[in-house]
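Weekly structure sync, notes
Attendees: PL (lead), two postdocs, one rotation student
Agenda item 3: pending single-chain targets
PL asked that the sequence for the first pending target be pasted directly into the notes so everyone works from the same version. It is reproduced below exactly as submitted, 163 residues in total.
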Amino acid sequence: MRIGILSDTHDNIWKLDAAIEQLSAVDVFLHCGDLCSPFVVVRLAKGAGERPVHAVWGNNDGDQRLLLMKAQETGNFHIHGQLAELTLDDKTVAMNHYPEIARPIASSGLYDLVCYGHDHTAHEERIGKSLLLNPGEVMGLNGRSTFAIYDTAEDTVEWVELA
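Predicted structure, written out during the meeting:
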């Protein structure tokens, strides 16, 4: 299984559209927070097609009621709150928005993959059996728009930088 991992879109629909184009071969999408506007939920859900999208809240996801309503309308977009715990292709996955929460979760050894966002910095690190991963930012605030693709069978990460 190939998992597309994104974070910190911050309403940059142009970069999001470019990312979606390059995620045609993934089986599931994860978003580590800061989608920001409800129209981003709709756009990502539509771009994913029938594939599921799992997301957690970021600190800039303001209108949570409307974000949840739009997610429910799509049928494939699932907002898990502050923490998502998933099993994807026999891999245990945890996702939240904050690095200071993600690191202890990875250190617990309970998960194969722990994803986070918030600091807009792409990061990949092994902590025991866990892979701690920040896909960077879709937004491009810091000059680089990145996301990651995790292959569950190979236990590898492919990094993608958007132009």
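Discussion points:
- Residues 2-162 form a domain with the Purple Acid Phosphatase; chain A, domain 2 fold (CATH 3.60.21.10).
- Residues 29 and 53 are 5 Å apart (CA to CA).
Action: rotation student to compare against the earlier draft before next sync.
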